[in-house]
Design goal:
The protein is an alpha/beta fold and about 325 residues long. It is built from 14 helices and six strands. α5 packs across α7 and α7 packs across α14.
């Protein structure tokens, strides 16, 4: 049973034209682009307060989805989101809160993410979004681009009694360009318009190439005419042979093999052509990191941060879809 919001009152009418027009215009476009009800239907069955003695009504699922998307679009933590809903008229209007409605607090937002995690809903939620965007012609199936990015976690500290521990024990170490990183990796597969088709979230020590076969599985299942693009970290003779045997273009950047002093002219030409396409896979990481959302992980633990990465991927796709509809 979902909590009911109040009917619009005089104060709502008096403030109807207030709020940032630019923000409200942007949010209106996003509101129209997102299939809120379709997503909410996946989550509603997890609530068990349907009967007369079922407990306190929950915040409407659509409202909670709008709140977590706002968090990703504007890089807001749970306490900041609670404050923003109190302070910003455009946000309240977007999520469906009247000026006299009770606010949604940070604990409720945190519990909503936990619900997604405990019920294993993130993957089905993301897949539903991808299918919707495919049906709108916003995700195309011709070509898959793969890449990964490191998302750092605070190194923290340990204490003898473990009561003062602040170390994320799930985070691991990796090296890149001579620098040591501590945290996780987000692996994504995009189409040729930089829309995320699939993702995997793992610890930092897992090599990039470990997840590519999973991420390009759909491309391989389509057979002849497809294409896979990735940087040289993903190059593997067996993988290249498998793709070519299925008549899928292998756009993985070539690298020197043992005993080879330099790339052949053919390999150099291949790399130049593929690099132009492969660069598009950087767009999701650039957007997410430029927004500040994934400069560092927000939480401790693989499962919690995987949910956060998945929500960022959904938020990015909808934001990106607006530019494709122009």
């Amino acid at each position: 049973m979902e909590r009911k919001t109040h009917e619009p009152m005089l104060i709502d009418g008096m403030t109807a034209d207030m709020g940032s027009r630019r923000t409200m215009a942007q949010l209106a476009r996003l509101d129209a682009a997102v299939p809120w009800e379709m997503m909410a239907e996946l989550i509603r069955p997890t609530y068990r307060n349907h009967g007369e003695q079922g407990g306190r009504p929950n915040v409407p699922v659509v409202m909670m989805l709008k709140i977590v998307m706002l968090q990703k679009w504007y890089n807001l933590g749970d306490p900041e989101m609670e404050e923003a809903l109190l302070d910003r008229l455009s946000f309240r209007k977007f999520v469906g809160l009247g000026l006299t409605d009770a606010n949604v607090d940070h604990a409720t937002i945190s519990l909503f993410r936990r619900r997604l995690r405990e019920h294993g809903l993130m993957s089905v939620l993301f897949e539903t979004v991808v299918k919707h965007l495919e049906s709108q012609g916003l995700i195309v199936k011709e070509g898959t681009l793969v890449d990964a990015t490191i998302i750092e976690a605070p190194r923290g500290r340990t204490s003898a009694d473990k009561l003062g521990d602040s170390k994320d024990r799930a985070a691991t170490y990796t090296k890149k360009h001579g620098r040591t990183y501590h945290g996780y990796k987000g692996h994504v597969a995009t189409d040729k318009r930089a829309m995320i088709k699939d993702y995997v979230f793992d610890t930092a020590c897992v090599h990039d190439s470990r997840h590519i076969d999973q991420l390009i599985a759909d491309e391989e299942s389509q057979g002849a005419g497809g294409a896979v693009y990735a940087d040289s970290a993903y190059m593997d003779k067996a993988r290249k042979a498998r793709l070519e045997s299925k008549r899928i273009f292998c756009g993985i950047i070539e690298r020197r093999v043992r005993g080879q002093k330099e790339l052949t002219e053919e390999q150099k030409q291949h790399n130049r052509c593929c690099a132009k396409v492969r660069a598009l896979v950087e767009h999701p990481f650039a957007w997410i990191k430029n927004s500040g959302a994934l400069l560092r992980v927000r939480y401790r633990g693989l499962a919690r941060n995987a949910i956060d990465f998945g929500l960022n991927a959904i938020a990015y796709n909808f934001k990106r879809s607006l530019s494709l509809q122009v």
